[in-house]
Amino acid sequence: MKVNITETVLRDANQSLIATRMPFSDFEGILETLDNAGYYSLECWGGATFDSCLRYLDEDPWERLRKIKAVCKKTPLQMLIRGQNILGYKHYPDDVVRLFCRKAAENGMDIFRIFDALNDFRNIEVCIDEVKKCGKHAQGCICYTTSPVHTIEKYVEMGKELEKMNVDSIAIKDMAGICSPKEAYDLVKALKGAVKVPIFFHTHHTTGLGAMTLMKAVEAGCDGIDCAISTFGGGTSQPATESMDYALGQFGYESGLDRDKLKEIADYFKPIRKRFLDEGRLNPEVMGIKADILKYQVPGGMLSNMIANLKDLNALDKFDDALAEIPAVRKDMGYPPLVTPLSQMVGNQAVQNVLTGTKYKTISKEIKAYLRGEYGRAPGEVSQELIDQCWKPEELVQGRFADSLEPAFEKTKAELGKKARSDEDVLSYIAFPQVAEKFFEAREEKESNTVNYTIEKKED
Ligand code: CO
Predict the structure, then answer these.
(1) What is the CA(16)–ligand 1 centre distance, in A?
(2) Ion ligand 1 — residues with CB under 5 Å?
(3) Which member of 128, 149, 286, 319 has the greatest number of CB atoms within 10 A?
(4) Percentage of the residues of the chain whose pLDDT score is greater than 90
(5) What is the whole-number distance in angstroms between the Cα of residue 201 and the centre of ligand 1?
(6) Residue 234 Ramachandran class (φ > 0 left, ψ -120 to 50 alpha, else beta)
(7) How many whole angstroms from 12 Cα to the centroid of ligand 1?
């Protein structure tokens, strides 16, 4: 039996353990080995990588992609894309979404893992369509969460819907790492019985369940799993590639991975891991097991965010009350999956409700936008009382929010003029305006310095 393994060291492991601070120069020397190790795909782009390249690493994310592709010619490259939100948290018009997918494909992307935080598939439709038009692999996502409305039947319905949308495969995205081995087994089993396309499973090892969850998912017929090479695996990252391959191998599953190459990859990242540890960028804290997540059923990032919030407000003693308020807020909001930014929105509202002593005395502008329908359709029923508190019926979004947005690419390109040197630059700017602008300015400066330097050289 074949099991496909995706390596996440270049994206999710990097994002989960060291806030996506690994520069290209750190992994350049191991790309060829990664390409020859036999992975199903290399996840290397999307999510925070794009932002971090521009903001902290002085790298053009598009150039990074081209440089990876120049070496990794055999193994498909994979990215994570938030459907209509592309890489951020707001909706973009269709022309931008389409061009982004096309440019990503042209620059070397092969597999697009496409998700919407609310599992509102109207928000991934355009993305899937464009990826298919580019002749690339469109992987539709089901964001996993637990709530009274997130039943196995509901997930199976979602799987069927994705298959109808012509996806090449389906990923179960357990971004919070809360899916237990039993839940994974039952979910994959049910999906495999209902759809024909391959199923992939993504989780995090945060609660210590990750490896068991992947094992049971594979036992239930899952076609592929995400792992991270041991030196960047475990903790809030993915279960370790070598350990999963070893355990699955004994049960007769063939990953096709070359174990000598895996050792080479793990060894290569050892000094890099050590450097991030020494610099304090890799906090040993993230490697521990957070069993609290199982008790509260909320992602670790959300818990630490709430603690930080309460600390700032000098109200850490209200932590238990705020935690107890979460289920109520989630219910009122129609049970959104707890993924960024919804997890923070729900957490902050719970804190506010507890601190003010009156429910929804203050409501953030993000939650107001959510209630208006700007994020899409909630999985469950949203409290009508809460909607009425913020909006008149005629103000609510009808249909798909992106339909109300004007095309933006050509207009932005004209506005940017010479600052943008390519369509890719324009897309970087649309995704992260201030950050991209600073990056463009620094690039100009660097190049003019290079010219000056050459002239000076000539003079002496
Ligand atoms: Co993840």
Answers:
(1) 8
(2) 12, 175
(3) 128
(4) 87
(5) 10
(6) left
(7) 6
